Amino acid sequence: MGFFSLMDPVWWFLVGPTILLSLWAQYKVKSAYNKWSRRSTRSGMSGAQAAADMLSREGLNDVRIEMVDGFLSDHYDPSKRVLRLSPGVYKSNSIAAVGIACHEAGHALQHARGYAFLGLRSVLVPTASLGSWMAIPLIIIGFIFSSLMLVKIGIVFFGVVVAFQLITLPVEFNASSRAKEALQRNMVLSNGDEVQGVNEVLNAAAMTYVAAALSAVAQLIYLIILGNRRD
After folding, report:
1. DSSP label at residue 94
2. CA-to-CA distance for 21 and 125, rounded, in angstroms?
3. Domain boundaries along the sequence of the chain
4. Kind and range of the H or E element at 177?
5. Any idea which residues carry the catalytic annotation?
């Protein structure tokens, strides 16, 4: 994107603020995680135990919980029904760890309950992945060879990426809501300070998805403007 836009004031006007928002969101995530990863829950449950407890109480006993290498590499794999947690979340009984683990367990609940937005996001994954690889090269090639058709195809591909980012928002917010509700209902969090900690960690993480979605929308608008200039 920056290859042909860094000198364009329109790009900076549209996309520049979302870059600042993304940097701020990343800072908030690291700050919240560092703060609440040093505070243990009174229940003493680890992230893996809290997630297993949440799933068991919801009747999901066929979802495996595994440890995976990496820092905050936590995710739920719907194709294999596996919840994968990073070492710092799997083993730790910190407030941050149980919040993150149960957020990922929230995705498993979404899958089991047929949550519509999760299903729609899963359908879009192959096309969005292809679009993330193909969109910008097609647009650049289209500009080089004065092919408006290639530019438009590239913009359509990028539009799918934007749709994926937007659909991700309700998926992530809903998973966090399920986690917060379950942690309090199951008494894993025993006081307001622990609830506040989970809220700070998960809300900060949610802002990274908001920033990514806004950035994608801003870039799509810019590409459409750019395409119309060459029309």
Report:
1. B
2. 25
3. 2-229
4. helix 148-185
5. 104
